[in-house]
Each structure stands twice: as C-alpha cells, then as structure tokens.
Amino acid sequence: ALGRGYDAILVGDAHTTDDMSAYAMPSAVDMIKHTNTFWGPDLAPGRETGTVDTADVSFAVSAAVS
User: With b meaning 16 or more CB within 10 Å and e meaning fewer, what string describes 22-41?
Assistant: First the structure.
C-alpha cells in the first residue's frame, strides 16, 4: 500500500506469523510485537501509518485531499 501511495494502518491484534523459533528466529509472539512496534509514521513521510486494535478500527472515509 505504501509503495503505491496509500496510507496503511496495521490492525495490531489481528495479524499473525509462523513460529520459526526452531530455526533460531524470534517466536511468533515476539515477531508480532516487533512488527507492531516498528510500524509507525517514520516508514513513509507524507503517508499515514500506524497500528490500531480491532476494537478501534473504523472504515470511515476521510475528507479528500486536494
């Protein structure tokens, strides 16, 4: 989404990953925490990024930018 110029908000408690700890990788829980921590506004200047919890998800359309 960011690469195509869209804002991108990650639902922080609604994504997952495989547990690769058997291969010396972080556990799934730790990978999710890491992703949520670093998914922030510094990823794409001029684009809105961040995380929200499922309870706070809104599909309201923002005012168009001219």
Answer: eeeeeeeeebbeeebeebee
Q: What is the DSSP letter of 25?
A: S
Specify the pTM.
0.66
Confidence of residue 61 (pLDDT cuts 50, 70, 90): confident
Looking at residue 56, its amino acid is D
User: Exposed, middle or buried, 1 (CB in 10 Å: 0-12/13-18/19+)?
Assistant: exposed
Main-chain phi, psi angles of 65, to 5 degrees: -95, 130
64 has a pLDDT exceeding 80: no
- pLDDT value, residue 65: 56
